[in-house]
Design the sequence.
C-alpha cells in the first residue's frame, strides 16, 4: 500500500508553527493520481557517469541533488514530475524530505517567487507563521522541489524572474 508510510501522524514543530507533513503527503497523492504506465512509452534513465546502469529519476535526484528533464511537448515531462512526487510521498528513503510540486504556469499569477510558491502549497497544512520553518528547511536541504513547465510561465518578465530566483535558491 503506497499510503502506508503516510498513515502515522507526523508534525514538525518550529517555535509556534506546526506543519502536518502526513496530511500534506496524502493530499499530494490524491491531487496527482497515479498514471498508468502503459499509457506512456517505456523510458530508461541513465546517470551521466554510468551510461550502462539503468535507474529511476528519484534515485538520480537523491544522489545528484537535481535533475533536468527536457523534451518536446507530449514527451512526458509532467508525467515524470508527478511520478517523482508520488514516489517521494511513498518512499521510505524520502521520509525526511518535504516534496513540493510547483507547476510553473502558477508562477507570477498565484505567487511571485519560489519561496512564496512553497508557502502557497504548504500553508493549508500549517498552523502559525510558516516563513521560519520554510527558511530553516530550505537551509537544511529538506525540500524536494519539483518544478514543471518553465515554458508555461505566463510572461517573459516572470520567466526571467524565475531563472534569477532559481539561481539564488541554488546558490
Sequence:
Amino acid at each position: 500500500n503506497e499510503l502506508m508510510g503516510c498513515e502515522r501522524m507526523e508534525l514538525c514543530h518550529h517555535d509556534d508553527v506546526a506543519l502536518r507533513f502526513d496530511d500534506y503527503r496524502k493530499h499530494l497523492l490524491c491531487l496527482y493520481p497515479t498514471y498508468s504506465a502503459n499509457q506512456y512509452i517505456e523510458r530508461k534513465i541513465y546517470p551521466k557517469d554510468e551510461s550502462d546502469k539503468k535507474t529511476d529519476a528519484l534515485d538520480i535526484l537523491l544522489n545528484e541533488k537535481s535533475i533536468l528533464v527536457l523534451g518536446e511537448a507530449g514527451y512526458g515531462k509532467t508525467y515524470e514530475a508527478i511520478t517523482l512526487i508520488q514516489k517521494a510521498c511513498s518512499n521510505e528513503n524520502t521520509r525526511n524530505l518535504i516534496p513540493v510540486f510547483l507547476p510553473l504556469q502558477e508562477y507570477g499569477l498565484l505567487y511571485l517567487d519560489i519561496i512564496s510558491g512553497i508557502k502557497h502549497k504548504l500553508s493549508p497544512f500549517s498552523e502559525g507563521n510558516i516563513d521560519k520553518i520554510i527558511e530553516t528547511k530550505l537551509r537544511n536541504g529538506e525540500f524536494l522541489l519539483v518544478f514543471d513547465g518553465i515554458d508555461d510561465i505566463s510572461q517573459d518578465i516572470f520567466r526571467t524572474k524565475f531563472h534569477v530566483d532559481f539561481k539564488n535558491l541554488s546558490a
Observations:
- Confidence is low (pLDDT under 50) at residues 1-11.
- The beta strands are 11-14, 17-20, 98-103, 126-127, 143-148.
- The longest helix spans residues 156-170.
